[in-house]
Amino acid sequence: MVAIQGKAVVVTGGRRGLGAALVDEVLARGAAKVYSTGRSAFSDDRPAVVPHALDVRSAESVAALARTAADAEIVFNNAGILLPGPLLTGDFGDITETFDINVFGPLRVARAFAPILAANGGGALVNMHSVLSWLGGAGAYGASKAAIWSATNSLRSELAAQGTQVLGVHAGFIDTDMVSSMAADKTSPAEVARRIVDGVEDGALEVLADDISVGVKAALSGPVEKLFVALPV
User: Record's superkingdom (predicted)?
Assistant: First the structure.
């Protein structure tokens, strides 16, 4: 378990949505410094926040962040993208971009920060999955979240020797711009952030951030044809 008080924290995609809520939550719990990233440069007037432009598709951009945040003790891999479309007929460029951002992006960040976390005492790495990691019907987005879920499970094993807590988060619909056009029950970003940070401080390896995630995980032992969702529009 890793207490937030006094820690240096990285939040990718921290400019808005769940990322912004995570920045707020760790500051409220006494983080000493928060490196908050967005795709382009931005400003934040809070003294403890260090804004940083980051493109998780670029190894060079990730390396630049790692050089700046060499004191990081907790990393939240939150940056992601949702580009709707079916696997068979959707734009293939959208599919590859989805995997580059949602799978390879967090992996680039994990690879860059693993030695930093080791040098700073182990710390924690948090990866955002989705309830759609477990459900068909969400095209490349769901497939990418299934892939990062699998990657997180392997990273947990690989980082265990250096004492890094690896936490995977599953959540349903969070009330952010990403799903603003979808008619569905949504959980507030602040509530999801609270549950995630509770998980870090409790030493959890997995957070099921809402009732739908709890229910779908319980259904994994059932018939595979039941693991499907038609996304609301």
Answer: Bacteria
